[in-house]
Structures are given as C-alpha cells and as structure tokens.
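User: We ran a pulldown and think these components assemble together. Before we commit to crystallization trials, I'd like a predicted model of the whole complex to look at. Sequences follow.
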Amino acid sequence: MSNHLLEIKGVHSGYGDVKVLHDINLYVEEGEILSVVGANGAGKTTLMRTISGQLPVTAGEILLHGTPVQHLPAHKIAAEGIIQVPEGRRLFPYMTVHENLLIGSTMKHVRADRQKNLEYIYNLLPRLKERETQMANTLSGGEQQMLAIGRALMENPKILMLDEPSLGLSPLLVGTVFDLIKTISAAGTTVLLVEQNVKQALKISQRTYVLENGVVAMEGPSSELIDDPYVKKAFLGL
Amino acid sequence: MQLKLTKQQQLKKWLLIGVTLAILCVLPFMLSKAYFVHVAIMCLFWAYMSASWNILCGFAGTLSLGHGIYVAAGAYVATILLNTFGVTPWLGLFVSCVVASIMAIIIGFPIFNLRGAYYTLSTVAIGEGIVVLLTNFREWKISDDLIIKIGGAEGLTMKTVNSPLFMQWRGKIPYYFMILVMLIAVILISGYIKRNKLGFQLAAVKDDEDAARALGIDVRAVKLKAAVISAIFTALGGVFYALIIRFLEPAAVASGATMSNQIVFGAIVGGSGTVMGPALGGLVLNLISSIIQYFLGGSVQGLHLFIYGVIIVVMIIFKPSGFITVLEKLYYKYLGVEISEALEDTESEGESDGK
Amino acid sequence: MSLMPSIINGASMGAIYGLIAMGLTLIFGTMRVTNFAHGAMLMLAMISAYSIWAVTGINPYLLIIIIGPLMFVLGYCTQMFLIRPVLRAESDKNDPIGVLLLTAGFSIVLENLALMIFGADYRMAQTSFSNTVFTFGNSSLSAPRLFGLIITLGVSALLWVFLQRTEPGRQLRATGQDRNTAALMGINSEQTFAVAFGISCALLAVAGLVLLPFYYVSPSVGGVFQTRAFIVVVLGGLGSVPGALVGGIIIGLIETIAAQFMTASVTSVLIYLVFLIVLFVKPSGLFGTKLD
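Assistant: Here's a predicted model for the assembly, 885 residues in total across the polymer chains.
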C-alpha cells in the first residue's frame, strides 16, 4: 500500500457540464513542499477545490494516508486535516483579525491547542498582533495573506494547501510570504502549493507537477524542472 | 425549441387537442348541479390567472406576490364604470386594460431594478398597501351629482342588469365558455411569446440577469413588456371575477392570502415558466381544493386549505419544476417522440402550443 | 398634546417588532433565505402558550421553559427536513425563490392546522397583571407592555452576546459571511443553518409569550406581524441584529405617533411607503453590510 500522505488517483472533476480535470495522478509526501504550477486556466484552482471538497469528484480517488476521502463534504475534509487557504484569501470580512483566528480553531479537536497556536502565530506574525482588533476587510493585501495563512495554521493542518498565495502582492511581500511558507514547512507541516509564480514555486519546493489543460504535463524534482528547457521557455521567460 | 413532428405525430397531437376541447365544451352540459358548473368555472378561472401571472413571473423568473392589484384594477374599474356610469363591461374591459398597463409601468419602473427577495417584498408591500387604500375608500366625491362609490370595507356590489350587452347572462354556462375562451387565448399568447423574440429575451434574463445585460438586453424594458401583457390578462381576469361573483371586497380581490398567493401556487405547482404548466397547476389545485371542501369542508374548518398547503410544500420539495414535467413525458410517449431528444431543458423550454 | 404616551407605547411595541424581526434577519444573514412562515410560527407559539395557560393558569412568561425549546426544535427540524432539500436543489441558481415559496406554503399549513385544532376565535390570556398600569408623570404604560419591553431588551442583549462572544455564535456569523470558507474551517453549514432557524423560532417564542397578556391571538394573527417584521428587517439592514431592534422601535414609534393624526389603516399605508422609500434609497438599511 502507498505511504504517501495524500494521493490523487485518476481524478476527473469540473463545473457541471464543463470538465476541467482529466485523469489527474499526483501524490504528496509527508513533510515536503509540493508545488503545482501551470498557466491560467490549467486547472490549478480546480484541483485545489476538488481536494478540499468544494467540487465533486466525477471519477477517481483522493486518499489521505491510504483512506479515500473524495466523497466527504468540505467541512469533513477540513476535519481530516486537509486545510486549504483559498485563492483570494477569503477572510471573514466583518470579523476582526483575532476573530478570524478564533474561527480557524473552531473545530472541536483543534480547540484545545487554541491558546498555544494563537501565541505561535502572533509570534510568527507580529503585524497581526498589532491589528488584532481590526476588521479583516481593512487590512492590506499582504496582511490579509498573512492572516489567511495564520487562520489555516490554527486548524492544525496535516497538509496545508495554498492557492496562489502570491496573487496581487508586490515582489517584496511575495518574498515575505514565501519565507513564511519555508518557516512553516521547517516546523514540520506538509505543504501543497499552487502557484502562478513558477520561479518562486520551483525554488521553494522539493517536487513539482506542471498542469496543462487539466492534465499533468510534467512532474519531477523541482531542481531538475528549473533547468528544463520547456519550463524555462513557457514559464520563466528564458 | 420546436418539436419537429412527423405527419403521423402531428395527427396525434391535433387529435389530443381536439378531444380535450370537445370534452371541455361538452362538460358543463353534463354536470348535474349548478354548483359543479361553478366549480368548473372557477377551476378554469384559476388556471387562467396562473397562466397570466406566468407571462411575467414564470418567463422572467421574478416572484411577484402582489398580482392581486391587477385583479382589483380589472374588477373595480369595470364594476364602477357599470354602476356609476352605466358603461357596459364590453367597453369597461378596455379601460381596465389601460389602467392595469399604466399601473404595471409605474410600479415596474422602480421595482424591476430590485433583486430577488427585495423585489418580492416590495410587491407584497404594494399589494397590501392597495388593499388598505381600497378598504378605506368608501366613495370618491367629484361633485354633488357625481359620487363614485367604491365600497371600502363593506364591499361593492355590481349592478344587476341581466343583459348580454352587459356581459350578464342567465345561468352560468355562458360564463363557462367565456373563461374557456380566455384560457385558450392566454395559453396561445404565452406560447407565441415563448417562441419568439420576447420569450428568448425573458429566458435570458431569467437565467442570468447580468449576463443578459452584458449581451445588450435592456432588462427592465423586457420585464416591463412582459409585465404589461401579464397585467392586462390579469385585469381581464378581474373583470371576469367581478361578473361571476358580483361582489367585490378589497381583501378577497387583491390580498395575498386570497388572491395573489393562490395564483402563484398554481403556477409553481404546475410548472412555472412553461406554457401549459401554470394553467394545469391552477386548475388541479383548485379542483382538489373544491373536492375536499365539498366532502369535508363543512365539518372541519381549515382542512381543505391545510391539505392545499401540504400539497404545495410536498411539490416544492419533490418536484420543484412542477408536475408538468411528468405530463410532458407522457405526452412525448403518446406522440412516440424519443424522450432524450425532446427533453432539452424541461424548465425553460416547455412545449409547443396546445397540447 | 403630549406625545410621551405614544412614544412609550410605540417604543415598547416596537421593541417587540424588533425581537420578531431579529429572528428573520438572523435567518437572512446566515442562510440568505426569506422565511415566509415567520408570522405563522409566531402564531403557533402564541396559540400553544395560550392553550397551556388556559388549562394550567401558569404565568405565560414562565412557559418559556416549554415553548422556547419546542420552538427551537420546530425551527431546527424545519430547516433540516423542509428547507435543506430545497436549498440543495437551488444551490446553483442565482436568485433562489424556492425556499420563499416553500415557507409560504408551510405558513398555510401551520395556519390551517391551528384553525382546525383551536378554531377561529380571538383569545387573550387575561393574567393577574394584564390590567395593571404603571404611571410615570403624565404618561402610563400597562404592565404587560412594560415587562415586555424589559424582557425584549434583555433577550436582545443576550442574543448579541451569543453572536459576538460564543463559539456557536461566531460560527453562525462566519457562515453568514462566507459559507464556503466556513466549510474550510470545518463548519457544517447546514447544521449551522438549523441552529440559526432554531434560535429564530425561540425568539418568536419569547415575543409570543410577551404578547399574550395584552394581545389577542387567533390563527390569523401572524400575517400582520410578518409584514411588519419584513419592513423592520429591510429598514434595519438585512442580517443586522441591532438594526432589527432599532428598526423595530422606529416602526413602532411611527405606528403609534402617526395613529394620533390619522386612522390605523392610513398608518399602515404610511409604513409601506416608508418601506418602499428605504428599498429605493438605501436598500442596505440603517446598519446593513454589503453581503453577497
């Protein structure tokens, strides 16, 4: 049996009649940073939403530690420890920074760690502590991304899935966000990163999948893909 | 989408239509009691009203819970013209149509900008508001010689003239045929609208208002057109109501509970948005309600309405697109048409005219 | 002419309108659903409470122990068994009206069930304090209205605390703001809806019990309160609980103050006009947030 943390086997999914993902095979090892890259419309966000249960799987399996989870509703998949930071952050706009973090730890089995996690995150991201009582929709883009990630961390993720965390951020902030991801990974959290910023994604991850038109076009160690001529031409503009 | 029927299938279709019409025409003469004829008339009436409502709300996807105001427009205008000015309803109905159209435009202009629940709530408020206004207006004194009696809470009784020139016949049967003709007319017109430009525009608006706007459709204008047509038909229904009941009470004519909501439920249960659905729904609901009332109504107050409500709840949960979908399948089977090719989008496509 | 008596009466009745509207706005804020059975449910609470009072003579306010939980269960089950399937079927539509129609149909079911069981008579619970009147200077307020005002304000405060400071309250708010992301936090939105509906009905229980000592109840009593409640909800802002209270008091004040100068029915028309004006000028209401 496989001992991958997360495995996607032969998965098809889409939006009603519009089929987006075709026969996706992918796995995530415990402790690694895995990145999934591709052009706009390649299916990256669809993949993420399928794993997190927001989109139904029309065929195939999603296995967590070998157990199928693809039929579970989104809130149960989160309970299994598969935690998504959605594209565009999607904070709760009329809740404060602090309340967003509290909601992150609302699941019964993570509530015990609430205080501990809060301390950890406020230490990790002091800016959030400063803005503790501010409404989430008044934060800047970078602060929102920090909060979204912090909120996800409150859920004690087995695997943290980030959907385009660099979206809409300045290069300086992008660097900060990726430093944060590195820190989180170093602390032991498995990360699945979907990104349009291919350069950063390849630099930070151990392995990468390249999606194109809803299928896996390439896969392999990031260090190799970064030198691949096709990747260089298509994504790195070289 | 028009079904392409073979000669043989067309024959079957017209046979079905012919038999149905024949039965409908013979029916009133076969019923033993005048009460049964009255029930038949009211079934056709509610079928007609739901079909009229459907022209705006079913096709455009808006939920108006205040259509009673157009019923009131038809009923009160025709009755007042007869009572105070001696004008025959044959002419009065034209005035009613004009009044209803103006109302539809004045009201529609602002409220068609509202979305979803907001629009519905405003139709409720307008509907209730008009009921209150009518309840409070006993009469309108224009001069010492000219006092228009409106009735207020006590109600307004239509003058009895007993002449066909004034749409007042002896016996119920002429009224039966009157409403039957009206029903056929509204169904034919609904079918015509649906198959042509306005129908497509309305369907686009119903499906996705923003997308329709982006395609260049003037959403409000389209809705207003449908609203006016719907209002006119509804007002004509109001005129008929006045003739058959001969007594107008604001709450009975226009309020949500007794008029507006009933119209809507008939349309929904039958199949809102289709051509035949609302008429069938209105007919069936009223038929069931009348039957229950006939056998049980006297003994337990509220029972027939209770069952009526249960039917609605059950239908919305289990067959939200109405029971027309079931009948459609039977119809296609009867014609011998392949169901897969015929049933595209049951909700928005409906059928060709007639049955 | 002193307006004080009208103001006090209007505010106390308005607070009750507010309490009724609070449940409605809670449902709308959490589920984006319009509950057209709200008035019928209020009536149900009142009629059941009346029946128990008529047999036992227990003070209506104490009946909250029975009626409150019963109404909560009614609301919870209504969401779970009636509304949930319709919501699921409509999840892809832009402007879902199915639930509105469902609840309108359910309202007919409840009203006529009450009619069949209790009959059409108007009744009021004549309690020991129903006719007591308190006087303050020039004005007076009947005991039931005064108690009603105090209870209503108290329960409103409790609701506020529940929503702002407790875990389930926070979950409710999160679900209302973004139900898909709330699911990513492990929140079962359908369950949360059921809790919201249950709370809404429990609030109706309180409002019903408060009304019983001075208001005549019959199977048709729900309609007027429902229409008022919708107007209050729009005025206060869909989804805003404080807005519902403030909006309710405003409507209550308009009602009683206007009644000094015009007939009751014209006052009704005035309130509809206010409603329409709010809809066109500031549809988000006094405290409304942009939810969607």
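Chain A has a mean pLDDT of 92. That may be worth checking against your pulldown data before setting up trials.

User: Thanks, that helps.
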